[in-house]
Specification:
The protein is of the alpha+beta class. It is about 45% helix and about 15% strand. The protein has a four-stranded mixed beta sheet with strand order 1-3-4-2.
């Protein structure tokens, strides 16, 4: 009886660390919604950024980064919304799980990680950010792409190449230089099953 109870408790505790069908947290759902808002109406998003001016929920250290982002959005045609993928979210979750305890900040082998959770067709990309804030500020950090010379995060979001997305976010715990901030990883793919 004690062994059965112990096994039950062990399975219950480990359930939070398994991969499977994804239920998005409010932050993750917010990121998905905001990314799809950018993709389906880039010009409208640019106008919102202009109208928000100094009240944008993200501050850029590069003076030209925000006007450049607005210009890029205005020149982008609307794209279909991303299709959500449990498998890509599991790949994102694996990255979050690996990064949170260490405070590391690197992409690693995205292709290999994604293939653990399904069949990849075409290209793959990944964005991640560490911020204290909400979904809107996280997505703005990728659109503005402060300090990233090739603006690769923005490119991933606005690329016709990517159709599928997975999302995972987690909060850094004590003690960490990122304490109280969230790590959010998005994984993009052209095709994924």
């Amino acid at each position: 009886m004690k062994q059965s109870f112990f096994l039950f408790i062990l399975l219950f505790i480990s359930a939070g660390f398994t991969y499977g069908q994804t239920t998005l947290s409010p932050l993750e759902q917010g990121v998905l919604d905001e990314l799809n808002r950018v993709r389906t109406d880039p010009v409208g998003y640019a106008k919102w950024m202009e109208e928000s001016g100094k009240n944008l929920p993200y501050r850029s250290e590069e003076p030209k980064a925000i006007p450049e982002a607005i210009k890029a959005l205005k020149s982008t045609s609307p794209l279909p919304a991303f299709k959500f993928s449990d498998g890509l979210s599991n790949a994102s979750r694996a990255q979050v799980k690996d990064q949170l305890p260490t405070g590391d900040f690197n992409h690693g082998n995205i292709d290999k990680r994604v293939r653990r959770f399904g069949t990849l067709g075409g290209g793959v990309g990944e964005n991640y950010t560490i911020l204290e804030g909400n979904a809107k500020s996280m997505v703005l950090s990728w659109i503005i792409d402060d300090g990233i010379p090739d603006r690769g995060h923005r490119w991933n979001i606005l690329s016709k190449r990517f159709n599928f997305i997975g999302i995972a976010c987690g909060e850094y715990s004590k003690p960490s230089k990122f304490e109280g901030q969230s790590l959010c990883v998005t994984t993009f793919a052209q095709q994924f099953k």
